[in-house]
Amino acid sequence: xxxxxxxxANLYIKKIYTGIKLKLSALGNYYLKFEQELxxxxxxFLLILLAFGIVYNLYIDLSTDTYMVNSFKVQDDIQKTGMSxxxxxxxxxxxxxxxxxxxxSIKEDNLNFTETATIPEIQIQGISxxxxxxxxxxxxxxxxxxxxxRVVMVGNTLRLTLIISGQPVFSVKRMIKDxxxxxxxxxxxxxAAEQLLRFTDPYLLACxxxxxxxxxxxxxxxxxxxxxxxDNRVWAYNLWGNISMKNGEYDDAINKYQKAISLDSQFSKxxxxxxxxxxxxxxxxxxxxxxxxxxxxxxxxxNLWNSWGFVLxxxxxxxxxxxxxxxxxxxxxxxxxxxxxxxxxxxxxxxxEDALKIYHLLTEVNPTNINGWIGLxxxxxxxxxxxxxxxxxxxxLEVDSLNNIAYGTLAETYGLMNKTxxxxxxxxxxxxxxxxxxxxxxxxxxxSFSGTKSFAEIIKKYKK
Length: 464
Known about the structure:
Layout: H1 3-63, E1 65-69, E2 73-74, H2 76-79, H3 85-103, E3 111-115, E4 123-124, E5 127-128, H4 129-139, E6 145-154, E7 157-164, E8 170-175, H5 182-200, H6 202-211, H7 215-228, H8 233-246, H9 250-263, H10 268-280, H11 284-297, H12 302-314, H13 318-331, H14 336-348, H15 352-365, H16 370-382, H17 386-399, H18 404-416, H19 420-432, H20 446-449, H21 453-462
Helix pairs in contact: 3-5, 3-6, 5-6, 6-7, 6-8, 7-8, 8-9, 8-10, 9-10, 10-11, 10-12, 11-12, 12-13, 13-14, 14-15, 14-16, 15-16, 16-17, 16-18, 17-18, 18-19, 19-21
């Protein structure tokens, strides 16, 4: 190649290089500009999102019943016990919140308590956020409700008076024998908390009463709820139906569920509630029709599949029942009812390994569920793994030291091991707490001990 040709080639390459460099530089400037614009849009989007969040939270606050809880007026002598007005207000709200939690309704709670006496307000340039919200509520015509009260001694009677906006004044009284005790304080606080919940959310109070077995109180509260809380009438009828069903009053329960459906034709819980009642009445085909209606409305309701599985098991269609409980567990793997009932079915079908696996899972999911430990102990007994059975049943008694079935199953395990003293000891305890193993006396281990003097004496001691 000639010298002139080389020079031309170098100039051409340099020209290409310079062109590429200029294009890359332009591309870099474009990318930098794009990055800056993108940041602007992201910031704008975040600001819009923040504004939306503030507006949404304001809407929730305006649409939710919020009660301002003021410090109670407390007589000086009572304050000397350490119970100031702030403490009374705080503990009543805390107890009301606890009752709601015990009730454990699946219905969304739409009630807030704000304790002005005990919760510091957020300050914005010297103006409290709560004051701003209260002013906004005033502008929008939203009534600001309040809770207050007073606590006094009248003679030898402790009286707590509860004052709630828009409600009649309520008083609870407690006779004092000598001096005010912690038990006296707890009594008036609990009654005040119940009444507070009755005025503000009677349905949730009914849930609480139902959960502790106080069905008469629950039904009385539901009557009040149906009259004074129209937004919760569907739920109130449904809960009333549940109570009637548990009491074996199936026709009444169906009537209550139908009233719920008349108010809301898409309320699936009432449909499978009717299905449960029909199952108890052995009207299985009609029951399954109700379950199918509920499935069309809400196939993701765990309790639907539990109810369907229960009725199928009552009809001894165990394979289909197992399918339903597995559907429940697919939706909620830690559902205690589905786990326990599924394990029980496997145990009844003598599929001991399957039952053992489910009982193990149940004790992991809920270590305080005594039925899981008893079932697990029985499965180990069937496998003749007696030491594991004993350990597991002792864990059951740690959960409930008075459980007659745990003592009875433990007695059976010791009997199968031919540990006579332990057998008699646990048999005595099981009968003492109400166990009735008499139908099993022709089976082991009872059969081997039934002819002994000690066995006869223990049975005679408790058999009615």
